[in-house]
Specification:
This protein is α/β, with parallel strands linked by helices. It is 37% helix and 23% strand.
Length: 291
């Protein structure tokens, strides 16, 4: 009798586990699971199919990776398709990534094999530790060089504000009263290229997402802008203010004539001088008008 009860109990547990496994493998189930993880779990690692990635389950980007299996990978695919269509991808060139975060986009670019090498720059020590882990566990060390600093217009240190719930929103600009202030090293892009033994003419694309610090970084890489290297970035008048945004547009227009503005998945061609400064934020691709 006891053996029969044990058998029934085992079958019920197996059925329950199979049912739970199926449920938690749905997007809704994964969302419930990640939202229910407590503060004791500091890092998780998941198999995303063609790569694995480690993240903090308390972070917005990590939770999105857990739910969807990627973080805005379609943005990378879309950009590469546009560059390829316009014949702007140079074989063997180097990608300069400013704002590597935990390495999601770094890995997507590396897997695409569109670039011979990637220089990924990330100032937040929380993100940088995971960036190192993710590059190493995906065996990309021979193609990706990591730099732990901010990119700015002078060398030294700057105040840096760590966002509590979205590590991708950590910035040199305070965004909330709960941000944790630390000091991080800052280097001009010219110094970063020299430190990584990268010649300016090797750079085939600049990918920049540095939460409002873009004007400072751009002013430290005029040698790249003068070459009209394709530049994809998050353009954020909400951070700059309308007057500074207008100054930034004027500065960019010294080097580029044409751009694509990305909103809600669509790309709108525009002249750089006409980039709107009254919107909060959008993605932007600056390109050589001769192409």
């Amino acid at each position: 009798m006891r053996s029969r009860r044990q058998t029934i109990g085992r079958r019920l547990r197996n059925f329950r586990n199979r049912l739970a496994g199926r449920f938690f493998n749905t997007r809704y189930g994964r969302e419930l699971l990640i939202n229910g993880i407590g503060a004791r779990i500091l890092t998780m690692t998941v198999d995303c199919g063609d790569h694995i990635i480690s993240f903090s389950p308390s972070d917005y980007i990590g939770r999105k990776v857990f739910r969807k299996g990627n973080f805005e990978r379609d943005h990378v695919d879309r950009l590469l398709a546009i560059l390829n269509e316009r014949q702007l991808l140079r074989e063997g060139s180097t990608l300069l990534e400013l704002g590597g975060n935990i390495g999601t986009q770094t890995i997507y670019f590396a897997l695409s094999k569109a670039f011979g090498r990637i220089v990924s720059v990330e100032p937040d020590p929380r993100n940088f530790a995971l960036l190192q882990t993710n590059i190493t566990q995906n065996k990309l060390q021979d193609r990706v060089i990591l730099v732990n600093c901010a990119a700015g217009d002078k060398e030294g240190e700057i105040d840096f504000f760590q966002h509590r719930n979205n590590h991708g929103k950590s910035s040199a600009i305070r965004q909330s009263g709960t941000d944790n202030k630390i000091a991080v090293p800052v280097k001009p892009v010219s110094a970063i290229l020299a430190w990584t033994s990268t010649a300016p003419d090797e750079i085939g694309l600049i990918w920049m997402d540095i939460e409002g610090y873009e004007p400072h970084a751009c002013r430290s890489m005029e040698m790249l802008l003068a070459r009209r290297v394709p530049l994809y970035m998050e353009f954020s008048p909400a951070f700059y203010g309308e007057e500074q945004a207008a100054d930034f547009v004027d500065y960019l227009a010294r080097f580029y004539d044409d751009c694509l503005i990305f909103r809600d998945g669509s790309a709108t061609p525009a002249k750089v001088r006409d980039i709107p400064v009254g919107e909060a934020q959008f993605d932007l691709l600056l390109i050589d008008s001769a192409i």
